[in-house]
Known about the structure:
7 strands, single chain
Amino acid sequence: MSLCCLFLLLLLIMLQFVDTLQRVLPLESASDLFCKQPHRILSVVYTIRPYLPKDEESVYKVCLKTCDDGSDGTDTFPDNPDLIGDKLVGHFLTLSPEYCFVLEEGDQIVGYVLATLDAKAYFKKMEVAWITEMKRKYPKPSKTRSNLTPAEEIIQGFHSFNPALPDTLFEKFPSLLRMDVLADVEDKGVAKNMLACVLSALKSNGSKGAFVEVCTGDKNHLEAYTKLGFFAVPELQITQEDVNIVARAI
């Protein structure tokens, strides 16, 4: 068989797989996540699988490498490399592991998507079971808020934790998620596959929508979520000035 014929056969198999996947997953309103355009042949294979406890350190590393609006934040937290992970991903891994997935390249984790089904109940659970532990782990800074370093601002956030999100958000979009992928991942379409996995899991258990909290200055993250079908929810009066809320129906 010629190389050209082999290539065409591979594309046909890929398109048939996408059709089958779209029929199996309960995502009638998310056809945008199933791209039927031919992809270029990649030099690596990516695998999406459920999160396992042994993945925690790797997920924290990816979080640190992407926390600066998709770029490496290692220099921002030289003394507390786990701090940003404790803020952004640790609570998902501990309190909602059944809705967590990782992206692997070979035996290396290069991305993740993490979620919780009922965000309103989750925030209450998080305050008791996660924030309390973070307050013990990180003593409250003694400086005034205007003089805090980025790390101290996060620690201060643990000690003043108050999601303050309106019930109208939870009624329309009951689930919360977060997704990050390393910048050097070749397949830029893999984020759609990851999102399809987690949204399928959420919808199968009764969710009708999901939202994401994005820091106001994170323009790259906001653009990435917008391309994945998330939109701002302007009618909601969000009281957190440093966070944008974007959401999408399932």
